[in-house]
Amino acid sequence: EFLLESSLVGRLIGKGGSNLQAIETAHGVRLSLRNSPDEGYTTVSISGDDRAAVEKVRELTEVVKETMAVEPPMIGWARGRDGSSLRGIKSTAGLQDCLVD
Fold first, then answer.
1. Would you say the pTM of this structure is higher than 0.85?
2. According to the CATH classification, is domain 2-61 in 3.30.1370.10?
3. Contact yes or no for 19/11 (Cβ under 8 A)
4. Distance of CA 3 to the CA centre of its chain
5. How far apart are CA 82 and CA 63, in angstroms?
6. What span, in angstroms and rounded, lies between the C-alpha atoms of 62 and 44?
């Protein structure tokens, strides 16, 4: 069981539940979502007979959010031409998203 930012729940579920169904079918687990007492979060529970499969799905679905400060003069460099640096970071690190605010 872990907390997921409510803004990311749609991405986990997928269109018509397609992502949830694919995860459950591929790994033989059951995912359930419920409102968390922590505002802005949803509780994700994973259950299944195979402990290794449950742990694997947890790794796949859990979101790790890292924030890194970038000095204003370096923002353009961090982004790269047409976002090329961000795409490279995303690809190399296996990230779902890489944003500059």
1. no
2. yes
3. yes
4. 11
5. 26
6. 9
Is the Cβ–Cβ distance between 58 and 4 less than 8 Å? no
Dist CA 85 CA 78 (whole Å): 6
Question: Taking the alpha carbons of 26, 27, 33, 37 in that order, is the dihedral positive or negative?
Answer: negative
- Which tokens in the block code for residue 65? 């959010």
Give pLDDT tens digits for 30-62.
Answer: 999 998 888 889 999 999 999 999 988 888 787
Q: Domain limits of the chain?
A: 2-61, 66-101
Provide φ and ψ at 58, rounded to 5°.
-60, -45
Tokens representing 59 are: 């790794």
